[in-house]
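for the recovery benchmark. tokens below, seq after
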């Protein structure tokens, strides 16, 4: 019942490997494990052979009658090592899997033959009756160390080896001592030997199946761990990209650290109430040398009455996506857009001496983009752009919903330049023009509305 359950469990786990497409990777992993088991076997087998040979030489008398045994054991170990070494040639074995079966069977038969033939030799030569030495060693070798992929071949090989040892015991050991099978006591000795061999095979099968279950389970667990780790890394990278598209790194990083610290503290002190993020963080930074760009969609109000909501939203989405891509190209940080208003800052994330130039280039690109949209969508749309250079304050405010924004007199000036500008043109301040050296732009006089604001 237990073995049936183990076989069923192994089958379920194998189907799970096939389901997630890992069977090929698992077979490659199993190949590496078999080579490792094989190396362990060769090391242990040589230790057993040397200890056994030394024990024979030290305890047997006359010692010269044991020399042949030692020679055969050592020669068999050398041949088995050579056969098993072939399996260490991974690429060749993967192409010809039959090599694993042939070398394993031949190695087992050589070991069994040397073990039994040595005893048969002494039986006829010296009239010695000796029990087999390597029977348990060979059975455990078959199930634990041989590089045979499936369970049926080791099972068949184990049954054959056990049968050989039982036949040897019955024909030589039992016959020498003239065991009468009709005698219950003598018959029990043969039954005990058969039971010994049977239990060794059951133990080997149990070990083989359990090892397969454990190796497959650990392989699946490690694969799941690796995939979850990769997924988590990708999620964090996407989160970072998304967050930095909303907040500059110098603002977002302290907030991220604060949130992680709060989560760690909450796990340690589950009953302690912590204040909100907004009460702990109010990150405001001063930026003395930046350029601000304000842009406003002309005829937006008219479009809201002539276009459907879906068409209008799609139009704005495509348009602002173009603006965001252009802003990223010119290293300008978009702050936000409110309906038909779009504003951004150059030199905010990283100080840049060419911040004024990049804002003007972005403004020209936005005008070009709006013309393309107007031509392709057949809509009456245009844009006003205002650009001013100076200083500002930028940061995050809010207790529950954090909001990043900019403030300052120069921000207001940039907004006023946009409001008093001419559609399809960039309305810049004199300070911005002074920062753009050797420009080739066509500069026109400012609008009357802007001059009236300055006078007032």
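predicted aa per position
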């Amino acid at each position: 019942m237990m073995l049936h359950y183990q076989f069923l469990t192994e089958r379920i786990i194998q189907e799970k490997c096939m389901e997630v497409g890992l069977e090929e990777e698992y077979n490659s992993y199993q190949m590496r494990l078999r080579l490792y088991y094989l190396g362990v076997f060769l090391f242990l087998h040589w230790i057993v052979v040397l200890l056994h040979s030394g024990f024979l030489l030290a305890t047997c008398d006359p010692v010269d009658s044991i020399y042949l045994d030692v020679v055969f054991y050592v020669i068999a170990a050398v041949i088995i090592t050579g056969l098993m070494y072939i399996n260490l040639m991974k690429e060749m074995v993967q192409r010809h899997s039959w090599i694993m079966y042939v070398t394993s069977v031949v190695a087992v038969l050589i070991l069994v033959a040397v073990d039994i033939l040595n005893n048969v030799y002494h039986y006829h030569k010296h009239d010695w009756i000796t029990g087999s030495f390597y029977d348990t060693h060979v059975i455990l070798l078959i199930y634990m160390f041989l590089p045979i992929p499936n369970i049926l071949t080791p099972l068949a090989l184990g049954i054959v080896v056990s049968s050989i040892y039982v036949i040897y015991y019955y024909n030589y050991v039992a016959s020498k001592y003239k065991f009468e099978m009709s005698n219950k006591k003598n018959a029990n000795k043969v039954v005990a030997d058969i039971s010994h061999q049977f239990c060794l095979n059951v133990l080997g099968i149990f070990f083989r199946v359990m090892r397969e279950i454990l190796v497959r389970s650990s392989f699946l667990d490690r694969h799941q761990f690796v995939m979850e780790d990769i997924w988590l890394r990708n999620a964090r990278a996407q989160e970072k990209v998304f967050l930095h598209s909303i907040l500059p790194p110098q603002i977002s990083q302290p907030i991220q650290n604060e949130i992680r610290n709060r989560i760690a503290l909450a796990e340690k002190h589950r009953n302690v109430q912590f204040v909100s993020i907004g009460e702990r963080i109010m990150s405001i930074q001063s930026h003395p040398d930046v350029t601000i760009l304000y842009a406003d969609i002309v005829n937006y109000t008219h479009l809201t009455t002539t276009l459907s909501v879906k068409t209008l939203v799609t139009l704005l989405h495509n348009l602002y996506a173009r603006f965001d891509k252009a802003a990223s190209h010119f290293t300008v940080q978009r702050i936000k857009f409110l309906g038909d208003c779009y504003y951004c800052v150059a030199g905010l994330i990283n100080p840049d001496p060419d911040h004024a130039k990049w804002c003007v280039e972005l403004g020209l690109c936005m005008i070009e983009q709006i013309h393309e949209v107007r031509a392709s969508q057949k809509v009456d749309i245009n844009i006003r752009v205002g650009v001013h250079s100076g200083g500002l304050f930028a940061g995050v405010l809010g207790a529950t919903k954090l909001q990043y924004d900019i403030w300052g007199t120069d921000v207001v000036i940039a907004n006023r330049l946009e409001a008093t500008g001419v559609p399809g043109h960039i309305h810049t301040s004199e300070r911005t023009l002074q920062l753009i050296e050797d420009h080739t732009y066509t500069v026109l006089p400012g609008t009357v509305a802007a001059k009236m604001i300055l006078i007032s």
